[in-house]
Amino acid sequence: MSRALDATDVLVVGAGVAGLACARDLLAAGVSVRVVEAGDAVGGRMRSDRIGGYVVDRGFQVFNTAYPQVRRRFDLKELRLRPFTPGFLVHTPTGRLNFSDPTRRPRTLPELLSGRLAGPRDLAALGLLSARDMLLPPGRLKRRPDTTARTAFADAGISEAFVERFFRPFVSGVFLEDELETSARVFHLVWRSMLRGTICLPTEGIGVVPRALAAGLPEGAVRLETPAAGLTDDGVLTTGGQEIPARAVVVATGPGAVPVLLPEVSLPDYRIVTTYYHVAPRSPLGEPTLLVDTRRRFLNTCVLSDVVPSYAPPGRTLVATSVLGRDGQGRERELRAALGEAYGTGTDDWDLLTVRTIEDALPAMPPPQPLTRTTRVAPGRYVCGDHRATASVQGALASGARAAREVLRDLRR
Ligand SMILES: Cc1cc2nc3c(=O)[nH]c(=O)nc-3n(C[C@H](O)[C@H](O)[C@H](O)COP(=O)(O)OP(=O)(O)OC[C@H]3O[C@@H](n4cnc5c(N)ncnc54)[C@H](O)[C@@H]3O)c2cc1C
Q1: What is the per-residue pLDDT for 2?
Q2: Among 4, 189, 232, 341, which residue's beta carbon has the most beta carbons within 10 A?
């Protein structure tokens, strides 16, 4: 560093993964940093609760080991991850189809080639698209002109029927929209990570991920239950009326507080999702696999306790099912009927444990997507989070990293 910095160089507002990653990078560069967080724990959208012996994430989500920021920042062993099978199941009106990645599970190749999932042309087009996404350097993917995921599938020679049976039900659960209007660039990068990595859940719940980041900060660096009410010329004003001075402020609050703290920053629309957590007397599946529905009555469902047995008390089964939008009257009843059909089992003896609706779950990512945006807003003011990059943990972490780089560059000038 060209010169020593004051005691409170940077104040990060928000202890989601973006804010925590930013704080960690600043700290590693020798800058003093504090974080204020409105909630009673770190994690933002990645938090887990315990309800009567069950682990309940605040909305079903998965953790992808191939994300570059994940590989850079985490000791995956420490997170004690449990994998999903590489692939997913598709419930169709004519029965269940199984898509398993043949490069990881060669013994599933005969089933893939049987024609039940797709004909030879679609399989060849899927293979080519996947090989390109997996093998081309990401820079090439990023430089391609952007379009919607739907157009990208058509351009890749994939038939509409196969898109409806395979990509649409699966992709809706990833981007929390079911019109395939998400940027193709974002789709290709996410598909690349799915093919190269493993989707997992930490044994103690998704909330372990931000806690691992926070554990690398000095004690007392994160102040919980301290919402920022506004930015001042010298730092941040908390809702308690205290002014915390800082040379630079990074707003990492997610969409809720950005309009108040930084009204000049425009935000994308956000997707709403609801996850229903059911307790069943036994597993209706018996394998750690995602199940999607061609009729899209739900985005995806899985038997969480088949993935991570400790998500449920011994001998009990926890099922998570996500739907687009909010809960509403009769929605759970209809969902239960759809789940009964998809799992091929009665659901009368299932109990609803809890429901989680996440209003600002994921930013919409229509084309063209720049993938990453500057975090500089004004001198000494920065913004980061998944809305400044891609809608994922990778995007949030990368945006936090970019904020740290930009703050450092400006402080050292
Ligand atoms: C249901 C669901 C499913 C998902 N599935 C996946 C998935 O499978 N894979 C994937 O990669 N990603 C997934 N995501 C996305 C991922 O969780 C987010 O992209 C990421 O957690 C966003 O982190 P962030 O730090 O940008 O924002 P946030 O997590 O929203 O963090 C913002 C923080 O700021 C705090 N804050 C707000 N206002 C203030 C204030 N005024 N003062 C102080 N603090 C404030 C909040 O309390 C919060 O802690 C999913 C998200 C949800 C909700």
Answers
A1: 36
A2: 189
Q: What is the pLDDT of residue 107?
A: 76
Query: Cα–Cα distance between 330 and 35 in angstroms, integer?
Result: 42
54 alpha carbon to ligand 1 midpoint, in Å?
22
156, 131 Cβ separation under 8 angstroms: no
**pLDDT above 70 for 1:** no
Q: Which two tokens stand for residue 254?
A: 């997610």
Express each pLDDT in 201-211 by its tens digit. Answer: 999 999 999 99
Give the model confidence (pLDDT) of 145-204 as tens digits. 999 999 999 999 999 999 999 999 999 999 999 999 999 999 999 999 999 999 999 999
Two structure tokens written together for 281:
């007397």
118 lines ligand 1 (CB under 6 A): no
What is the spatial distance between Cα 399 and Cα 385, in angstroms, rounded to a whole number? 6
Mutate to test the pocket of ligand 1, among 36, 47, 61 (most ligand atoms within 8 A of CB): 61
pLDDT band at 7 (very low <50, low <70, confident <90, very high): low
Question: What does the DSSP 8-state code read for residue 338?
Answer: H
Tell me which residue has its CA closest to atom 50 in ligand 1.
Answer: 61
Residue in 228, 266, 225 with CA at minimum distance from that of residue 246: 228
Instruction: State the closest ligand 1 atom to the C-alpha of 238, by its place in the atom list counted from 1.
Output: 42
Judge if the beta carbon of residue 256 lies within 6 A of ligand 1.
yes
Kindly state the tokens that stand for 406: 């930009």
DSSP 183: B
Taking CA atoms only, the protein residue closest to ligand 1 atom 3 is: 61
Which is it for strands 228-231 and 235-238: parallel, antiparallel or unpaired?
Answer: antiparallel
Nearest Cα neighbor of 292 from 116, 162, 173 is 173
- 358: part of which helix (H) or strand (E)? strand 351-363
pTM reported for the whole predicted model? 0.96
